[in-house]
Structures are given as structure tokens and as C-alpha cells.
Design goal:
The complex is a heterodimer of chains A (253) and B (214). Chain A contains six helices and 13 strands. In chain A, the strands form three sheets. Chain A has a six-stranded antiparallel beta sheet. With 253 residues, chain A is α+β, with helices and mostly antiparallel strands. Chain B is an alpha+beta fold. Chain B has helices at residues 61-68, 107-113, 124-134; strands spanning 14-18, 23-28, 33-38, 45-51, 78-80, 86-93, 149-151, 174-180, 184-190, 206-211. In chain B, the strands form two sheets. Chain B has a six-stranded antiparallel beta sheet with strand order 1-10-3-8-6-5. Chain B has a four-stranded antiparallel beta sheet with strand order 2-9-4-7, with helices on one face. The longest helix of chain B is centred in the middle third of the chain and has 11 residues, at 124-134. Chain B is globular. Classes of the chains: A alpha+beta (253), B alpha+beta (214). Chains A and B meet through α1 and α6 of A and α1 and α2 of B.
Chain lengths: 253, 214
């Protein structure tokens, strides 16, 4: 697939950038004080993501804790992503989309087969139809994680809204080409990610949407920081991180 | 939709009252009927299910809501596993709506939601951890503690993506009943939360009953 190189910040601040083609997976330890910018290059991307503490992977992203402490069902700028230990893995410092999903989970192999048909590696090489569930198992396995360690993930760029009766509806027009979201890491974080299709994507053909990843160093957190101040709960979350980083185990630098 | 059960409590093969703030863990065989009764109303029963024969397969809130296309649990809901197999199906319900988005309270999340000095208040995840420690024959640990269902709890989602903790829609004596579609281990924390209306600020006992298949 051909696509434009992602737009960089133009000031040389990008430390590393790469493109995750559609239907792939990767993992990375993001350092405290770094920013990961995600760019949906062609529109309609889905980027599944899970977060763990690399020093203690039993501490992991907790979607219910994240949603209830910020009284939200969607994720967007100003929100923080919490671990089950009351700490913030990362905060969303910029977002052109307005709604990212964290309640719909992943497609698995059976779903991909039923909706789009399976393309095997043997026949299709790198155009095989991978799925988010297996992607997380493979990437998690590299750190000793397995089935028991998976949790509700984020699906960046995807929107699933709910009506008054609770019915869920996927919005295929949520993320136009060039959409971006920026995650500032507030502690060292193991990030598992995949660009496999959202499980509710109704596309006729297996969606294969590339996402650009750009890493840079974060600016210091100002007293009027949007994520720190968006809710009093987040002030307490940042305080929990501060307490953690005071102990040797939590030294992120 | 509401539906009364035809089963009489006297014919149950198992009955036990769970005090507020306690845990309950027990195997439920495929085909058995499992009822949770909100004895005094507005209680929250934070419940996890594991495949008894392969506990790495367990209840999955996200797969459950996605596959039924609705974020609330109610009559007819099939509680799905992480492998997308049916674990249990709700076959009777006097409440109408149960939550599975809100997770369970924890001492750590209480520090964020309320105040740092609430860190010592009793919480569901502490109850679960004690349950797993006292039942180490099951070989379950913190790794296995995942996103649960909250029977009797009301967490409405709005069209614009908001989420709130509302007063319960449950009441004294209301119950939810489900049929096990596989052998499961049920783990309940009878929620001790004192800081929000999920228990009407007053944690109370619940009762669990099990019937053999007819």
C-alpha cells in the first residue's frame, strides 16, 4: 500500500518515527516523559493498545477504572489512562478525533474468518489477515504475558456510541485521513499495539489501514496542564504517580 | 424486560447468605441454575466467572457487550468468555439492567476517585485477592482478576459518551438468575463501597442459590 510520509513537527523534535501498516502488531517500552503521536494516514484506522508496568506486569491498564474515575465512556484529550493500581500510564494531550473506544475488545481469528475470510500466510505472505486477539498474545508473549494477562484494550481512532437503550453503534466516519492523537507517558510503560481491524468494522473487505507512530520528548508538565486539571480525580492520579516515582522502583529516568 | 423464575427456593441444592464486604467462591456445573438475590435492595454483586476446566478462559465484559450489541446485561444476555464461548445465560431477572462497564472498586482506584487517604477502605478487589489466596488449589492469582459484571448496579451511558453512577434500579428481594452453559467457578465480592451510590451508601447482604437442572 502506498501512503504519504507522515507530517513531522518540522522542528527536529521527532526522535523516531515509523509506520505500522494495516493488520500488523508491535510492542515497545515507552519511557516516562515521552510523547507518542499516532496518525491515521488514510482514514478509518484502528490501533488496538494495551499497557503494562514493565517492572511489574501485574500492574496493567484498567479500562473500567479509567472510565469511571473520569465519568466517561469515550477517550479524548484531557483524559488519563489508568492502571489498576491507581496510577496514570499516559495522558491524552492532543486529539483531533474526539472519540476513541475502549469497551469493544478485539476481533479474533473466527471473527475475521466469518466477516472477511481468512488469508493464510502461506498463500498471501504479508497480506495475511491477522487479528487483534492473536496480535496481543504474540506481543505479550515476548514479555512473559499470556491469555490470563489480556484486558479490555483501547481502540484508537474507533468510535462505538450507545443509544438510550444501550445499543452499540460503530461509526465508520469517525477518523478522517490525517487524524492524530498524542499520548504523554507519565511512567515507564510497556505498550502492546496492533493495527488489525476493529471487531465492529462493517467494511466489505478486510480493512488494512496504516498508522504512523512518532516519538518525541515531552515538555515539562505545566501547572495548567489540561490532563492534570481536567478533573480533580486526575490531580490525585498524578499525585499517585509522584509518590510512586519517589521510590527507587518507580524511577523513570 | 423482566421475567420471574418458576424455581422455588426450597428446592435449591445450595443456599447461602453473603454478608456485605465478604467474598463467595464456588463451582457451578453446566446446566445448574444460579440465582443472586438482592436481599435489601441497591446492593452491588461484583462477579467474575472462570471456566472451571481451563480458568485462563474467563468472563469477558467487552466480548459480552459487543456480541450482544448492547452495553447492559439483562434477560437473555449471554455472558461470554475471552474465547467467545457462552459461559452463562440470564434466564430470569427482576431488575432489568445490570452493569458490566464499571469494574470493581479497589483501594487504589478509591484514592483517585475520592481521596488519597481512602486507601485503607475495604474494596472488592481486596475481597477477590483474599478469595484467591484462600483457595490456592484453584491456582488463580491477581493475573486472573479481570473486568467483572456488577449485578444490580446501574451505570448509564449517555449518547455523547458520558458515564455516571446512578441510583440502583434494584430493590429488596429482586434477583437475577442464570443457567450455566459450561462448568464455571463463580467469584463474587459483595461490594463494601461506602463512597458512592452503587450500594446506596449502605452495603447489605445478598443471597446465592443453586438448583440442579430439572
Amino acid at each position: 500500500m502506498k501512503f504519504q510520509r507522515p507530517p513531522t513537527d518540522g522542528d527536529g523534535s521527532t526522535l523516531y518515527e515509523t509506520v505500522l501498516e494495516g493488520g500488523k502488531h508491535w510492542s515497545h517500552v515507552a519511557r516516562r516523559g515521552s510523547v507518542l503521536r499516532l496518525i491515521d494516514l488514510t482514514g478509518g484506522a484502528n490501533l488496538g493498545m494495551l499497557f503494562y508496568n514493565p517492572q511489574n506486569p501485574l500492574e496493567r491498564y484498567n479500562a473500567p477504572d479509567t472510565l469511571k474515575c473520569q465519568h466517561t465512556f469515550k477517550l479524548t484529550r484531557g483524559h488519563c489512562l489508568y492502571s489498576d493500581m491507581g496510577r496514570i500510564f499516559c495522558s491524552i494531550i492532543a486529539d483531533t478525533v474526539g472519540w476513541h473506544d475502549t469497551v469493544s475488545g478485539n476481533a479474533n481469528k473466527a471473527l475475521v474468518a466469518a466477516r472477511w475470510g481468512l488469508k493464510s500466510y502461506q498463500d498471501h505472505r504479508n497480506d495475511w489477515t491477522q487479528n487483534g486477539h492473536d496480535a496481543f498474545l504474540v506481543e505479550g508473549g515476548k514479555y512473559g504475558l499470556g491469555r490470563r494477562d489480556l484486558a479490555a484494550n483501547v481502540n484508537w481512532f474507533s468510535k462505538v456510541a450507545v443509544d438510550d437503550a444501550g445499543a452499540m453503534r460503530f461509526d465508520p466516519a469517525n477518523s478522517p485521513a490525517g487524524s492524530s492523537v498524542e499520548l504523554r507517558f507519565e511512567m515507564d510503560t510497556l505498550v502492546l499495539l496492533h493495527s488489525c481491524p476493529h471487531p465492529l468494522d462493517p467494511a466489505t473487505d478486510y480493512p488494512r489501514k496504516p498508522v504512523a507512530l512518532q516519538f518525541r520528548k515531552a515538555d515539562p508538565i505545566a501547572p495548567d496542564d489540561a490532563c492534570l486539571n481536567s478533573r480533580p480525580e486526575n490531580g490525585r492520579g498524578f499525585k499517585n504517580n509522584e509518590i510512586y516515582h519517589q521510590c527507587a522502583h518507580g524511577t523513570g529516568e | 424486560m423482566l421475567k420471574q423464575s418458576a424455581l422455588a427456593p426450597e428446592t435449591a441444592v445450595f443456599r447461602e447468605v453473603i454478608a456485605a464486604g465478604d467474598y463467595w467462591i464456588r463451582r457451578i456445573d453446566k446446566g445448574q441454575i444460579f440465582r443472586i438475590v438482592d436481599l435489601e435492595g441497591n446492593q452491588a454483586a461484583d462477579t467474575l466467572f472462570f471456566n472451571a476446566n481451563d480458568p485462563a478462559e474467563r468472563y469477558s465484559a467487552v466480548d459480552t457487550i459487543r456480541l450482544q450489541g448492547n452495553v447492559y446485561l439483562g434477560l437473555g444476555s449471554q455472558l461470554m468468555s475471552t474465547e467467545c464461548n457462552v459461559m452463562l445465560e440470564i434466564v430470569a431477572d427482576l431488575v432489568g439492567r445490570h452493569d458490566t462497564l464499571g469494574g470493581a472498586c479497589a483501594t487504589e482506584s478509591n484514592t483517585v476517585r475520592y481521596a488519597l487517604d481512602k486507601r485503607t477502605m475495604h474494596a472488592c478487589r481486596d475481597s477477590w485477592l483474599l478469595a484467591l489466596a484462600e483457595h490456592d488449589e484453584l491456582q488463580l492469582t491477581k493475573r486472573d482478576i479481570t473486568h467483572n459484571s456488577n449485578f444490580f448496579m446501574n451505570v448509564p451511558v449517555t449518547r455523547d459518551g458520558g458515564l455516571s453512577f446512578a441510583d440502583g434500579v434494584s430493590g429488596p428481594g429482586k434477583y437475577v438468575e442464570m443457567r450455566a452453559a459450561m462448568d464455571v467457578i463463580a467469584l463474587i465480592s459483595n461490594c463494601p463501597q461506602l463512597n458512592n451510590p452503587c450500594n446506596a451508601y449502605n452495603p447489605t447482604p445478598i443471597e446465592v442459590l443453586i438448583w440442579d437442572p430439572a
